[in-house]
Amino acid sequence: MFETPLTVVGHIVNHPERRHVGNQEVIKFRVASNSRRRTAEGGWEPGNSLFINVNCWGKLVTGVGAALGKGAPVIVVGHVYTSEYEDRDGNRRSSLEMRATSVGPDVSRAIVRVEKPGYTGPNQDEVPAPAAAEIPDPAQADGEPAAGDESAALPLSA
């Protein structure tokens, strides 16, 4: 069977939903990837959008469930496929879905701390200190960015 690999960079647009399917767990969420284009005048205009349903199985369930939520900037890698179904009116429909192989926060749009036994992170002497304007507001611990700020501190557990 041929699988179509895909990487999506975007934001989680709903609260991840954790379920049991047989004796396995799955966590599902929807990602929006929005582009924008520069206009001839030098401004920006919205481009195309992609919305995709993401299914996470195995070890991803624990990591995603512990670290990511609605609004989180993410990078999702996996295999994409079309899911076909009938709606309430009996019409045939299809949706784009992805079975994720890797999910993580987009560190270009968030500050994260990795928590993993045996991993201590970079040596503090090797990491440049952020400027005062880059330090996130501790009051924003819920993962929501401060007004006008695109970055947010997100915990990440593995």
Description:
This is Single-stranded DNA-binding protein. Keywords: DNA-binding. By secondary structure, the chain is mainly beta. The chain has a single domain (4-157), classed as Nucleic acid-binding proteins (OB fold (Dihydrolipoamide Acetyltransferase, E2P)). Helix content is 6%, strand content 51%. The protein has one helix and eight strands; from the N terminus they run ββββαββββ. The chain has one helix at residues 59-67, and strands at residues 4-12, 17-21, 24-38, 44-57, 73-86, 92-105, 111-115, 153-157. The strands form two sheets. It has a five-stranded mixed barrel with strand order 1-3-4-6-5. A hairpin with a 5-residue loop joins strand 3 and strand 4 (44-57). The longest helix is centred in the middle third of the chain and has 9 residues, at 59-67. The chain is flat and about 60 Å long.
Query: Tell me, what's the shape?
Result: flat
**Radius of gyration, CA atoms, in whole angstroms:** 18 Å
Indicate the CATH architecture.
Beta Barrel
H-E string: EEEEHEEEE
- Overall average residue pLDDT: 82
Count all strands and give the number: 8
Under CATH, the homologous superfamily reads: Nucleic acid-binding proteins
- State the share of residues found in helices, binned by percent: under 10%
Strands side by side in the biggest sheet: 1-3-4-6-5
Counting H and I runs of at least 4 residues, what is the number of helices?
1
* Strand proportion: over 45%
Structural class: mainly beta
CATH topology: OB fold (Dihydrolipoamide Acetyltransferase, E2P)
Outline the biggest β-sheet: 5 strands, mixed, barrel
What is the total number of structural domains? 1
InterPro entries: NA-bd_OB-fold, Primosome_PriB/ssb, ssDNA-bd
Pfam family, one: SSB
Protein name: Single-stranded DNA-binding protein
Organism: Mycobacterium rhizamassiliense
